[in-house]
Amino acid sequence: MILDCGGRLLDLNQPGVMGILNITPDSFSDGGDFFCLDTALAQARDMVAAGAAIIDIGGESTRPGAATVAADEEIRRVVPVIEAIHAECKVPVSIDTSKAVVMRAAVKAGAGMINDVRALQDQDALATAAELGVPVCLMHMQGQPRTMQQTPQYEDVVAEVKAFLLQRVAACEQAGIDRQRLLLDPGFGFGKGLNHNLRLLQGLGEIVATELPVVTGVSRKSMIGQVLGHEVDQRLYGSLALAALAIWQGSLIIRAHDVAATIDVVKMIDAVRKVV
Questions:
Q1: β 182-185/215-217 pair status
Q2: Which pLDDT value is given to residue 167?
Q3: Distance separating alpha carbons of residues 91 and 204, to the nearest angstrom
Q4: Residue 111: other Cβ atoms inside 10 A
Q5: In a domain, 215, yes or no
């Protein structure tokens, strides 16, 4: 399967890595690191050189307790970076946003995918995504970023996440978004406690069974810190272990900060999976 991301192709016939590039002062892992254009572009170059299949750009932190960013500020942060990367790098760029106006500005600047933690539930997001015609990644989140980790509750986290994602797929199809343009992200760490996250990873194959491409974002997340007792900058090995488990179960895109190391893991696990 090959996705047309605004004229840039994303090959999903083998798993790949989505490089994370946060243009924010307050993201949980790299907040402030790439807040100016030069450092952001340099990081994008490095990720592409390491083999990233797509670069995911976000201008608003969605970490627990994060403050809301106005749409015009979000656009001011991301559009120059998208334009620069699109002009210089040949891989697709995705925009990590829930706001319709930001989606529109980002796609005009060269973004070829929408990556929405709210699964196109915000005002005008669904209609805007349908109009823009680029692929969309739908993510599950229980609650909102400011409060999502306070009291997350599930009877069966895998079944509930799968049901939500399929409901959003149906809503997208009804709005005129072709199923072939959709990807699913179960939303590790978004309104989920440690056991929820572990059970969701254990049952990731049930999301993969929807036969839509699955994006897995576990890089440096708090679940790793809770199990291993490591701070954010010490979570590489835990991130790679979770990435390996996700690829083994059929996830096609791993969203990662540490692109080169993650690509090595993805290639090795995929090679083992493909042995006949």
A1: unpaired
A2: 98
A3: 27
A4: 33
A5: yes
Residue 214 and residue 183 in contact, taking contact as beta carbons nearer than 8 Å: yes
Name which of 11, 87, 86 is nearest 51 in CA terms: 11
Helix (H, G, I), strand (E, B) or coil at 240: helix
Question: Which stretch of DSSP H or E encloses residue 46?
Answer: helix 37-50
Q: Which of 104, 221, 235, 267 is catalytic?
A: 221
Q: Which amino acid is at 76?
A: R
State both tokens at 10: 């994303």
Residue 274 within a domain: no
User: Is 223 part of a structural domain of the chain?
Assistant: yes
> Per-residue pLDDT tens for 101-119?
999 999 999 999 999 999 9
* 221 catalytically annotated: yes
Domain limits for position 8: 2-268
Q: How far apart are CA 188 and CA 10, in angstroms?
A: 23
The total of structural domains in the chain comes to 1
Q: Which of 67-81, 144-158, 165-179 has the lowest mean pLDDT?
A: 144-158
For residue 250, what pLDDT is reported?
A: 97
Burial 43-63 (b: 16+ CB within 10 A, else e): bbeebbebbbbbbbbbbbbbb
Contacts of 131 by beta carbon, 8 Å cutoff, 6+ apart: none
pLDDT tens-digit profile of 70-89? 999 999 999 999 999 999 99
CA-CA distance, 197 to 193, in Å (whole number)? Answer: 6
Q: Which of 255, 267, 273, 274 is catalytic?
A: 255
Q: What is the CATH number of the domain that holds 213?
A: 3.20.20.20
Asked if residue 275 belongs to a domain, the reply is no
